[in-house]
Amino acid sequence: MKIQQLLQQARSDLDVRGLPTPGLDAELLLAFSIDRERHFLYAHPAKELSSMELKQFRSLIARRIKKEPVAYITGRKDFWSLGIEVTPDVLIPRPDTEILIEEVLKLSLREAEKGLRILEIGTGSGAISIALASELEDAAITATDLSTKALAVAARNTVNNNVKGKISFLRGDMFEPVDEKFDIIVSNPPYISEGEFELLTAEVREYEPRRALVAGPEGTEFHRKLARDGKRFLERNGWLVMEMGADQRFALEKMLKDRDYCDITFRSDYAGIERVAMAKKRG
Ligand SMILES: C[S@@+](CC[C@H](N)C(=O)[O-])C[C@H]1O[C@@H](n2cnc3c(N)ncnc32)[C@H](O)[C@@H]1O
């Protein structure tokens, strides 16, 4: 069968099972099966697959039909301008998180980039720290996670994205492995409540690491720890920048005010949902 026919068939197989992006998924999985980039499919619609390639493609489509995320099947997700390796030990980086990076980069310009020290809590695949390291030549970046397996993925991602040696990785619970102060603390913490977790799609609930998603009964438990303990690890006038979920603004604003942060601001994502909270430690 030719590439064009295979794509049509796979798209319709995924579509009838209610997968939200059947065309894109079919293309990504076919390109992966033949070890090519997606654009190759448009340039060679009449190419026939070998029987090995065909078998591989069919088995990948079968996995996708069971709702396994494409990024876990291919082991890769594009994020920022980077190719990030992902395994089931790490959250798949989300496009929304690019807003967090944009805000940290804006702060970096204001804070004179040279010598800037940045701490990321809960780095997972390393996507945030690696994006920052690729943009900020002179920043010293430290990144932590509780998961040893996630940190191994993050370390590999520094090599694949040419920022090896630019990030110090530490394993531990929140700030526990950290013993210095930073100009910016950034985090995309777990921020789903236990109740919300039950409502997530099977794709997320059954495949992504629960520990990366669920914060506790409220959903804001990690933000609370970041706001409380972050102050000890921030320089004066240092910034705390956190990703957040829809409807968490009220709770976050209150906890940041209670902890005496100033310049508290929120930034929405492109869907208009407030996605990033920023606050400054008083000088
Ligand atoms: C929402 S994921 C974010 C991953 C990555 N930074 C990203 O944006 O794609 C949260 C991360 O926090 C880590 N984590 C969970 N509990 C933690 C804790 N107590 N201390 C440090 N990291 C933790 C998880 O292992 C996971 O990698």
Give the name of the CATH architecture of the largest domain: 3-Layer(aba) Sandwich
* Number of β-strand runs: 11
Strands of the biggest beta sheet: in what spatial order?
5-4-3-6-9-11-10
Q: What's the helix count?
A: 13
- Ranges where pLDDT stays below 50 over 5 or more residues in a row are none
Largest sheet: 7 strands, mixed
Shape: elongated
Give a structural overview.
This protein folds into 2 domains: about 60 residues, Ubiquitin-associated (UBA) domain (Helicase, Ruva Protein, domain 3, Orthogonal Bundle); about 200 residues, Vaccinia Virus protein VP39 (Rossmann fold, 3-Layer(aba) Sandwich). The chain is of the alpha/beta class. The strands form 3 sheets. It has a 7-stranded mixed beta sheet, with helices on both faces. A two-stranded antiparallel sheet has the order 1-2. Strands 7-8 form a two-stranded parallel ribbon. The mean pLDDT is about 95. The protein contains 13 helices and 11 strands. The termini are far apart. The chain is about 45% helix and about 20% strand. It binds S-adenosylmethionine. The site of S-adenosylmethionine has 22 residues, from helix 7, strand 4 and helix 11. S-adenosylmethionine binds next to helix 7, strand 4 and helix 11.
